[in-house]
# Entry
Amino acid sequence: MLLTEIDHVAIAVKDLDAAIAYYAEAFGAEVHHREVVDSDGVEEALVKVADSYIQLTAATRDDSPIAKYLEKKGEGLHHIGYRVDDCAQALESMVAAGATPIDKEPRPGSRGTTVAFIHPKGSFGTLIELVQENL
# Structure
């Protein structure tokens, strides 16, 4: 089994601060990590839930994938992040099983992770992020 656990559930939001305030008020949640990922044009806030996260993510520029998603579909569930021990191996395994990679090879992600995205086509309509923690 290449998947070790759910790393995060990503929710696309228009206003990151408003989403953070809502999660704080509704659930008593606190932001565990907040980061701008310039390469993806996003700012994210991670709310820790047990050993996983809820990733609230907002666009930092109009041409980012999150901005395009928000424009097309509105706020809501964006993708699922699966934690793996070896991102390259998991990516290779998924491609061999018929998945369509967005990233042809793993790349740096937030929190010092290594990540690769899999297109929803060929993954039953779900955008998947493979996440390898580099401890």
